[in-house]
Amino acid sequence: MKTTVSTYPSTLNSVFKGVVTSLVLTLIFTFIAALAVYISPLSEKFLSLTSLIILLVSVFVGGNIAARRAGGKGLIVGFLVGLGFFFLLILIGLVFTPQTLTLTTLSVKLVYTLLAGILGGISAVAAM
Q1: Cα separation, 59 vs 23, whole angstroms
Q2: In 10 A of CB 115, how many CB atoms?
Q3: I need a surface site. Which of 26, 46, 56, 57 has the fewest CB within 10 A?
Q4: Which Pfam families does this chain map to (predicted)?
């Protein structure tokens, strides 16, 4: 009789590492953007676009790394990384700026994080 080994712990571990990677990249890129605005004559009006780009790139890379570590399942792993990062954003938002959490803002961020994570996961599988 053939026994199968569950890959759920490995997949969940990969998702966790993808979410942590996304968080670390977000913090690094945010620090660099803040430093650039502080030191240079860049206007603060670009921060909205910059924060969106930081979000997309960070979650994309997190989804990519998670799918590579999981050895495939890019769509599911990327989706879970995007979802995990979204919930992390909600928790951070509730702690620091609860008044800015609106349904519209949350809906848009959910779509962005899910798409970036999914695309990152799919790109990792395509590159394997």
Answers
A1: 8
A2: 17
A3: 46
A4: DUF3792
Using one digit for the tens of pLDDT, what is the confidence trace for 44-73? 777 888 899 999 999 999 999 999 988 888
Distance CA 54, CA 62 (A): 12
Contact indicator for 122, 65 with CB cutoff of 8 Å: no
Q: What one-character DSSP code corresponds to residue 46?
A: G
Alpha-carbon dihedral 53, 107, 101, 32, rounded to 10 degrees: -10
DSSP string for 65-122: HHHHHHTS-HHHHHHHHHHHHHHHHHHHHHHH-GGG--HHHHHHHHHHHHHHHHHHHH
